[in-house]
């Protein structure tokens, strides 16, 4: 039986052909755990649960990973507002999310990596990009990705140059569309040591590093077979992931 999927890169349905015959690696961007799950989280989880079940019914050996983002500006904001620890917030809402998905009958992922447990992999990825002059340090110590170094940037989402401009943290960047990989910070409980200075990772970096750490096949042009997530992540999150990967 031929199985087809809509290819977001080529914008058309194509016969599905995994990197390794009979095996499928599937990664989905999971929740940022600063609050309870909402209907959008349920829609995403149910969609990729159905895809995983379908692939397994077709006798593919599927490895499904869905991450937990447990370091983020929204989490920090809530921690400050409620005067409770980052860990208390992330533990509470991670459990809440898992309970809700279980109540919906969603199969638990084979892998559920947390951002805070994969900082070393993120540092390795940044080091690699700096060595290739694709990432660079700005005046305040933050590390940015140089979008101009990726000739295909924008081809996934088809965003215009105007759409792509990041108006936050401007001034010291090489280009308006460059995005942050590492933020220098000394905020208690949400910063990590690194060769670039104490700080925390940029959101877009996290998934690329976790895929690279837990799922990546490095034999060809792509590391995994399917990258999934909500439609709201198409740009800039998935576009930036594709660029840095």
Distance between the termini: 32 Å
Report Rg.
18 Å
Order of helices and strands: EEEHEHHHEEHEEHEH
The total count of strands amounts to: 9
Biggest pleated sheet: 4 strands, antiparallel
Number of helices, where a helix is a run of at least 4 consecutive DSSP H or I residues: 7
The whole-number mean of residue pLDDT values reads 92
Low-confidence stretches: none
Q: Helical percent range?
A: 25-40%
Structural class: alpha/beta
Strand arrangement within the widest β-sheet reads: 5-6-7-8
- Strand fraction equals 15-25%
Taken from the alpha-carbon principal axes, the silhouette is globular
Could you characterize the architecture of this molecule?
The model has no long low-confidence stretch (mean pLDDT 92). The protein is globular. It contains seven helices and nine strands. Strands 5-6-7-8 form a four-stranded antiparallel beta sheet. The longest helix has 19 residues, at 39-57. With 245 residues, the chain is α/β, with parallel strands linked by helices. Helix 6 (203-214) packs across helix 7 (234-244). It has helices spanning 39-57, 73-82, 86-103, 119-131, 161-164, 203-214, 234-244, and strands at residues 4-7, 12-15, 23-28, 61-66, 135-137, 143-145, 179-184, 199-201, 226-228. The protein is 36% helix and 16% strand. Strand 3, helix 1 and strand 4 form a beta-alpha-beta unit.
Topology:
Layout: E1 4-7, E2 12-15, E3 23-28, H1 39-57, E4 61-66, H2 73-82, H3 86-103, H4 119-131, E5 135-137, E6 143-145, H5 161-164, E7 179-184, E8 199-201, H6 203-214, E9 226-228, H7 234-244
Parallel strand pairs: 3-4, 3-9
Antiparallel strand pairs: 1-2, 5-6, 6-7, 7-8
């Amino acid at each position: 039986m031929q199985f087809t999927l809509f290819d977001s890169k080529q914008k058309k349905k194509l016969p599905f052909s995994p990197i390794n015959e009979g095996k499928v690696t599937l990664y989905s961007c999971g929740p940022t755990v600063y609050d309870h799950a909402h209907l959008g989280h349920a829609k995403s989880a149910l969609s990729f649960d159905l895809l995983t079940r379908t692939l397994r019914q077709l006798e593919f050996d599927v490895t499904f990973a869905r991450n937990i983002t447990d370091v983020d500006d929204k989490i920090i904001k809530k921690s400050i507002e409620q005067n409770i620890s980052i860990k208390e917030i992330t533990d509470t809402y991670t459990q809440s999310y898992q309970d809700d998905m279980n109540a919906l009958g969603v199969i638990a992922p084979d892998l559920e990596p947390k951002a805070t447990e994969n900082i070393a992999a993120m540092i390795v990825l940044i080091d690699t990009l700096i060595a290739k002059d694709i990432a660079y340090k700005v005046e305040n110590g933050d590390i940015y990705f140089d979008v101009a170094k990726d000739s295909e940037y924008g081809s996934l989402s088809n965003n215009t140059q105007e759409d792509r401009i990041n108006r936050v943290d401007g001034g010291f960047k090489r280009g308006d569309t460059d995005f942050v990989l590492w933020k220098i910070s000394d905020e208690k409980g949400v910063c990590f040591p690194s060769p670039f200075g104490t700080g925390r990772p940029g959101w877009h970096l996290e998934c690329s590093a976790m895929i690279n750490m837990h799922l990546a096949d490095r034999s060809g042009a792509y590391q995994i077979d399917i990258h999934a997530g909500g439609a709201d992540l198409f740009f800039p999150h998935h576009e930036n992931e594709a660029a840095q990967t």
